[in-house]
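In this section we walk through a basic example: taking a raw amino acid sequence and producing a predicted 3D structure, encoded as discrete structure tokens. The instruction is simple. Fold the sequence below.
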Amino acid sequence: MIVRSLALATELGLAGMRGTITDRDDYLVVATPDQPSYYYGNLLVLRAPPQLGEVGFWSRRFADELPHCHHVTLWWDGTTGDAGARDELLAHGFAIDHAQVMTAQRISAQESPLPIRVLTADETRATADLAFAISDHHDEHWRAFLRGRAAWHAELVARGAARFHGAFDGTTLVASLGLVELGQLARYQDVQTLPAYRGRGLASALLVAAAEARRAPTVVILAEPASPAARIYRRVGFHTVEMTASALRAR
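The resulting token sequence is shown next.
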């Protein structure tokens, strides 16, 4: 299956570094065996948005392909954010997610007010604690998920496939992000800042620091439409090139 969307192309590049991707010709099966509860690591990638009468079919196909998962995630190729059979998806208990896909070749920002440096593989594991601190969820299942994700990121760092940068207040990590190299593209991961440190330009400075160390000519980042994050990305030099849509039924 050939994918047109930059969002999906980079997402599949990431997925292939951790799990498996099986091509069924008219759809792809993405699986992350070590984390079956990872919603966007275990999904079906469709050629096009589901149409009327297809939502039940794809839900059953997901259950057949990924029987150990209790959720259903469908992500379809496309560049306009078309949700297809939106009402039918909602009726089947799905939440529809839209994201704007932004790219840049050169970005710039003001100097960081705090020291920024590349994180070691071991330090990259500490980004899980930062993610947990800013999260809306504070249960041990979620903490374990974040630690598993950070362990994978640390493995990418150790392999030289990614770099994570962090901003420090003394010895405390207060903001971080990663950039994973995927050939001609590099995809940002987990841009995060403690609430008390937001609005100081740390995210912008981290975006630039990571971009300056990259090998790929083009960087890609996803953002919720019209969000504060999207405005930050636009301010440093990103522009929107496509929209993407997906659907998740969590339970």
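Looking at the output, two observations stand out. The chain has eight helices and eleven strands. The two ends are 28 Å apart (CA to CA). In the next section we compare this with other chains.
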